[in-house]
Amino acid sequence: MSLIDQLKFDANGLIPAITRDVENGEVLMLAFMNAEAVEKTLKIGKVHYYSRSRRKLWMKGETSGHVQLVREIRFDCDADCLLISVEQQGAACHTGHHSCFYRSWEESGAQVRGEKTSDPLAAYARHDILNALYDVIQERRRNPSEKSYVASLFGKGLDKILGKIGEEATETAVAGKGGDPEQVVYEVADLLFHTLVLLGYYDLPPERVYDELRRRFGLSGIEEKASRSA
């Protein structure tokens, strides 16, 4: 029996699908699928949904490039809801956030986090600060302002970004030589930040770097370098 034969679609031929990040289990979005969307998802390996407003099938990332690569599909005990684990390329939310669920309600003060805050990372309910920071960088890139340092880097082009990375790498080395742990942390943070800007320039999410590090895990440095030479 196929997956589609086991699922219970509603009167409109739809079934809700919860999509989560396979790496950390974070819920990315909730959408709907019809039988054709499920079939396309299984066949191609990239998540397809059905838009109730547009009344048409669509593939996540078909215009933005932020596709969702399927890693596992589950369905609940009543077979009327899907849980899809994916490798998210870029942002899942159309706002540029990694997850559509980037806001949380606070009873004290009765406000929605992330709407108005002095902390640009406060809207991100996640433990992965590098991904969160990357999302903020990309948001600054898409919506530049005169007060944004990130926007100014993108505005000055690739050479400026590369120059800052070289500058921060040198300062990190100097801090390491100086022996002050706090200064080392400070400079490494600067270096990581500007490296994320470079990734943003090429629309490369941090997950691509994680994948490369995962590929190298368990290999000796000598073996890894030898494989690249070959």
UniProtKB/TrEMBL annotation:
Top enzyme category: hydrolase
GO BP term (any one): L-histidine biosynthetic process
Protein localization: Cytoplasm
A molecular function GO annotation: phosphoribosyl-AMP cyclohydrolase activity
Key words of the record: Amino-acid biosynthesis, ATP-binding, Cytoplasm, Histidine biosynthesis, Hydrolase, Multifunctional enzyme, Nucleotide-binding
Domain Phosphoribosyl-AMP cyclohydrolase, chain residue ranges per copy: 29-102
Region (Phosphoribosyl-ATP pyrophosphohydrolase): 130-230
UniProt keyword Kinase present: no
NCBIfam families: histidine_hisI, PRK00051.1, PRK00400.1-3, PRK02759.1
Identification of the protein by name: Histidine biosynthesis bifunctional protein HisIE
Lineage: Bacteria, Pseudomonadati, Thermodesulfobacteriota, Desulfuromonadia, Desulfuromonadales
